[in-house]
């Protein structure tokens, strides 16, 4: 995806290519007049209610980010305005992989699913949409403390290691969100997809780092409350954008808990309202909990558990050794005792780096089949190779041209002729290359002379492990295949006719066509679309403002009939009328 179609913003220009593959054009002209009416209703209802219960940053942020109540935000305009607060926004197609989502955040980029929910799902949709992203996430980032939390969360979160089952669950949730929002999906297909998600959720095994950090993301960024347990305010985007749940969450039916690291272990169900929510005293506290969690991640703990997490993920990851050498690949084996790593092995393309920069001569071209190396100290020698001075190295025959047998703890032996060593900028030796080399673990041969040059990593311990490569340029990351695309409705002639009526009313309200007869529009609705409730609410607003009492009465009578026929949407009609009446009192 080229960034040519997007309003330029220096932040977007910094994005690496592997993230730009997820960006899609917004195609603003694809939003119908019904879509615009859905946005307007949801925003009017939200702002009316949220002005009392949302954190003050929300209303301030709406003004600052230029998000209009009357029209779906245009990415061009958003990027112009977000540039002022050091952020940017991009459009994507529904859910994207969690690591990519977090990495966008690390670059100060807000990911916005540009589709909008159907009128039938106006109160809540499990699919990410522009009401959720644009009206929920964007306004709060105008608060600097929160914006920094979001950026830092992305930076740490994109390094979290997923399990193979996480990837499976992501695909299943994405599929479910698409078919649930798609028009005319057979109920049995939805039931089947819901069951798949449920079965996966119940059989995830031990939660991965990504599963745990996603819990933190859910209970803060999506469903967070702020303030006191007795009188909390809303700041989570899921609540700010759900006209049903923002009211429900403020009742005693939803348990309020103080936000702490314990939230990591509280799972959530994306398809149901949340039975409990967490309250942070302030935005700074969010960062304290995030750092507390980061201290438990392989990123900071290293050791055998870091390598094992990467093996379980079955995906591209990196370990860093105490010398700063970074090994990136798919890890498949570790030899360890009591949590101490003696040997690591990758399979397939592997690259070596230092300080996130690939080492010359150690790309995936040089290591296409994998990479294995002993880690740790030599047996019976307290001084690690990395800490040896040139004199020490000479004393142990670790010297160019010498044929040597190095016996490591954990019964790993390396026998061969030393070709050369590679050092880092601090002068520490990080890699030793051998020819005619044999590597063994007890009697098991791990490397044979006929396989060519053997490069041995130097490092007494694994200090870090994380998802993704050390150097982004080492691997082809432009390979994302979306398992399913958002389904767009094929509009029937009837639907096009209804959209045309919505457009007439919108044009009248905006003053672009004042010749439209609203009485005639009402008659057409009563005749052809007797169950549509949102357009009569919009007509009522215009008639009420124009003091047209007779038309108001006709519309209210029609809405009463709809309420009797469709009792489930009665509260939506009542709320729409209430907002119109309240606005009249305020003006």
UniProtKB/TrEMBL annotation:
One GO BP annotation is: aromatic amino acid metabolic process
| Positions that bind Fe cation | 132, 137, 222
Q: Does the keyword Cytoplasm apply?
A: no
In Pfam terms, one family for this protein is Biopterin_H
Q: Domain Biopterin-dependent aromatic amino acid hydroxylase family profile: where?
A: 1-345
Its required cofactor(s), as named, are: Fe(2+)
* Molecular function (Gene Ontology), one example: iron ion binding
Keywords per UniProt: Iron, Metal-binding, Monooxygenase, Oxidoreductase
Protein origin, superkingdom: Bacteria
Q: Which family does it belong to?
A: Belongs to the biopterin-dependent aromatic amino acid hydroxylase family.
Q: What is this protein called?
A: Aromatic amino acid hydroxylase
- Native species of this protein? Mesoflavibacter zeaxanthinifaciens subsp. sabulilitoris
Q: Upper taxonomic classification of the species?
A: Bacteria, Pseudomonadati, Bacteroidota, Flavobacteriia, Flavobacteriales
């Amino acid at each position: 995806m080229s960034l040519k179609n997007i309003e330029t913003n220096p932040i977007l220009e910094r994005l690496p290519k592997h993230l730009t593959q997820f960006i899609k054009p917004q195609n603003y002209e694809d939003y119908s007049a019904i879509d615009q009416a859905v946005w307007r209703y949801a925003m009017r209802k939200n702002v009316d209610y949220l002005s009392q219960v949302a954190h003050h940053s929300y209303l301030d942020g709406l003004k600052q980010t230029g998000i209009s109540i009357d029209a779906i935000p245009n990415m061009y305009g958003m990027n112009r305005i977000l540039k002022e607060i050091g952020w940017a926004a991009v459009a994507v197609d529904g859910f994207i992989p969690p690591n990519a989502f977090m990495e966008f955040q690390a670059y100060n980029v807000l990911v916005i699913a540009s589709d909008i929910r159907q009128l039938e799902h106006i109160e809540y949709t499990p699919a990410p949409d522009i009401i959720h992203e644009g009206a929920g996430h964007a306004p709060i980032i105008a608060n600097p403390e929160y914006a920094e939390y979001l950026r830092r969360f992305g930076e740490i979160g994109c390094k979290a290691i997923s399990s193979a089952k996480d990837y499976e669950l992501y695909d299943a949730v994405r599929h479910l969100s698409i078919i649930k929002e798609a028009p005319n999906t057979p109920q049995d297909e939805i039931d089947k997809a819901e069951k798949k998600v449920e079965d996966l959720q119940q059989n995830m095994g031990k939660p991965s780092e990504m599963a745990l950090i996603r819990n933190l993301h859910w209970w803060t960024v999506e469903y967070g409350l702020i303030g006191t347990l007795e009188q909390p305010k809303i700041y989570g985007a899921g609540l700010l954008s759900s006209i049903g749940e923002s009211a429900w969450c403020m009742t005693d039916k939803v348990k309020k808990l103080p936000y702490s690291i314990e939230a990591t272990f509280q799972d959530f169900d994306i398809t149901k309202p949340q039975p409990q929510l967490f309250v942070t005293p302030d935005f700074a506290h969010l960062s304290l909990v995030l750092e507390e969690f980061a201290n438990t991640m392989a990123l900071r703990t290293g050791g055998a558990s870091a390598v094992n997490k990467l093996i379980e993920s079955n995906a591209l990851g990196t370990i860093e050794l105490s010398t700063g050498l970074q090994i990136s690949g798919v890890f498949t084996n570790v030899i360890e005792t009591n949590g101490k790593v003696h040997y690591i092995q990758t399979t397939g393309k592997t690259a070596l780096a230092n300080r996130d920069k690939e080492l010359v001569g150690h790309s995936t071209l040089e290591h296409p089949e994998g990479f294995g190396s002993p880690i740790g100290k030599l047996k019976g020698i307290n001084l690690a190779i990395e800490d040896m001075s040139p004199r020490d190295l000479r004393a142990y025959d670790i010297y160019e041209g010498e044929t040597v047998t190095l016996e490591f703890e954990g019964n790993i032996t390396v026998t061969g002729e030393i070709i050369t060593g590679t050092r880092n900028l601090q002068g520490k030796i990080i890699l030793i290359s051998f020819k005619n080399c044999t590597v063994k673990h007890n009697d098991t041969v791990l490397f044979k002379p006929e396989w060519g040059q053997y490069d041995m990593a130097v490092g007494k311990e694994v200090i870090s492990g994380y998802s993704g490569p050390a150097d982004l340029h080492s691997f082809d990351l432009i390979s994302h295949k979306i398992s399913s695309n958002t389904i767009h409705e094929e509009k029937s002639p009837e639907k096009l006719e209804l959209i045309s009526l919505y457009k007439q009313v919108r044009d009248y309200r905006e003053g672009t066509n004042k010749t439209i007869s609203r009485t005639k529009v009402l008659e057409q609705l009563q005749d052809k679309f007797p169950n549509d409730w949102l357009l009569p609410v919009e007509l009522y607003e215009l008639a009420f403002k124009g003091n047209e009492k007779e038309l108001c009465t006709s519309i209210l009578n029609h809405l009463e009939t709809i309420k009797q026929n469709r009792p489930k949407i009665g509260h939506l009609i009542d709320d729409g009328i209430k907002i119109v009446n309240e606005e009249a009192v305020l003006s």
